[in-house]
Amino acid sequence: MTKEKEWYVIHTYSGHENKVKANLEKRIAATGMQDKIFRVLVPTEERVETKQGKKKVVNKKIFPGYVLVEMIMTEETWYIVRNTPGVTGFISSGTKPLPLPEDEVKEILKSMGIKEARPEINFEKGQSVKITDGPFEEFIGVVQEIYPERGKVKVLVSMFGRETPLELDFNQVEEV
User: Which residues does the UniProt record annotate as the domain KOW (predicted)?
Assistant: First the structure.
């Protein structure tokens, strides 16, 4: 089973979030871990503040003291992130870091104005595809519908002599 990239929350010294981001990005480049640690974000949002009668747009940290890291969790990546100057640790249950639920990540990215990257669609209606993940792995089916806004595809698979529609993520199917 291949490990998936997920978002993790790291705790930093308050006010050091941007330094930690810069330090971590340097470490990722120096250790060649760009294929395992993908993005480092300090969640911010634009707010309008009024000082001395003048309106000013400022970026405020949504979660002071925290930085988000999109990575594949391995002993090596965990060590690199944990030992970056300014990092005090991962948000975890005991010793094992907990990934952020996908719906929370989408909300945070949306509030920051970042659109989640959509997987590329390499197939079209009527085309045969192979299911690469999940309980129907290795089954071959025919694309019936494509839902690009949701990142989903409806595939008709023949099971027990009957056509059965399955709704799958784009990354669960590949061209035959």
Answer: 122-149
